[in-house]
Amino acid sequence: MNIDEKLAKVCEGFCIDGTYIGHELIQVGNVNKTYRVKVMLPEGREKSFLVQNLNTYVFKHPVQVMDNIDKVTEHIRAKHPGQLALHFHHTKDRKTYIESGDDFWRMTNFIPSVTYNVVENLNIVRNAGRAFGSFQVDLSDFDSQALFETIPNFHNTVKRFEALEATVAADPCGKVEEVRGELDYLFSVKEQACRLTRLWEEGKLPLRVTHNDTKINNVLFDAKGDEALVVVDLDTVMPGLVGHDFGDAIRFAGNFVEEDSPEYAKVGVNMDVFRAFTEGFLEKTAGALTQIELETLALSSFVLTVELAVRFLDDYIQGSPYFKTNYPEHNLVRTRNQIALAKDMQKKLPQMEQIVKDCVDAVL
Ligand code: GN1
Ligand code: MG
After folding, report:
1. What is the DSSP letter of 113?
2. Pairing of strands 46-53, 98-100
3. What is the spatial order of strands in the sheet that 33-40 belongs to?
4. For ligand 1, is residue 308 a contact (CB within 6 Å)?
5. What are phi and psi of 116, to 5 degrees?
């Protein structure tokens, strides 16, 4: 079946009143495939929906992913009735997904909006900080036991390093020699990068319910203003540390260039973006965070950057089975980009810590 035939069948499977007329591939995201699908309604009007094919190599238990999303969106909806949200459509047998062979499909409303990868407008950045901060605050009373751990140890940096070590030992594609320099750097910063995980193991950092994939392109923005409409991509909502959400957001939005840019000389933390995101995030969360969470917030940007470098490199050495790639060295380029960013963060850490303190003082 070609993709049009597959999408037409998906549209038939969900309870929507239209017939499939076409699609557009949305080039956002490194694991799932996302389509904007157009249907013709009975009254002769076109309507769009968002259809996603969940990556079942990455999400081994996709039904559990959908279960988590249902619970979390319900919890947030109850707090903000009327607020714009993603709505997952149901099939005739009341499921939020269709399984067909290796494909796992889901369908939501299409929200007209824009997303950003690199953004210099500081109002937008601050609003992204507020959106992810509010998301976390909204879930602060959610029972984390109710959630499946859809990808175990997702942000366990210690385990990510162990996995990389095992991949290096196996060297399934004979790529290890080529990446010695990258490996040497990553293992040289292992202890500092594993600090959050260690503090959590020692019981010094609390587990919360976190988003775990806080790239700024997971916030939908109003096309005309700078307003954040909704936080999307709830696939990895799981128990986690506040620094996972803060650090991942800075790693992505704070970089002068996109995470897969090969222009390594341009890579670095834009401190204006760092400040704006921190202001927005802490405006919502500062009152709820512990002293040690606040003290390790700036460090979490470095931690998440190194962790992503470790994951990209691990995938590259294995022949890139996990992340979508457009060319064979794509994951190596991502690794080098993230290493350049981590090095810049090491230099700027004292400044970043000062900004966190200033923002906390402004709120508390
Ligand atoms: C993946 O697919 P996307 O872009 O939402 C990955 C994140 C990484 C990110 C790097 C489930 O997210 O953890 O930070 O790529 N998601 C999963 O761009 O592994
Ligand atoms: Mg994601």
Report:
1. -
2. unpaired
3. 19-26, 33-40, 46-53, 103-109, 98-100
4. yes
5. -125, 145
Would you state the pLDDT for residue 364?
A: 86
Q: Are 96 and 234 in contact (CB under 8 A)?
A: no
Question: Of 338, 159, 168, which is closest to residue 252 (Cα–Cα)?
Answer: 338
How far away, in angstroms, is 216 Cα from ligand 2 center?
A: 11
CB distance 310 to ligand 1 below 6 Å: no
| End-to-end CA separation in angstroms for the chain | 58
Mean of the per-residue pLDDT values of the chain: 97
- Structural tokens at position 352: 């970043």
Question: If you average pLDDT over residues 164-178, what whole number do you get?
Answer: 98
Kind plus residue range of the DSSP H or E element containing 25: strand 19-26
**How big is the chain, counted in residues?**
364
Residue 31 Cβ inside 6 Å of ligand 1? The answer reads: yes
CA of 99 to the centre of ligand 1 (A): 22
Distant-in-sequence, close-in-space partners of 26: CB < 8 Å, separation ≥ 6: 34, 35, 36, 50
State the pLDDT at residue 173.
98
Q: Which residue has the tokens 């239209």?
A: 18
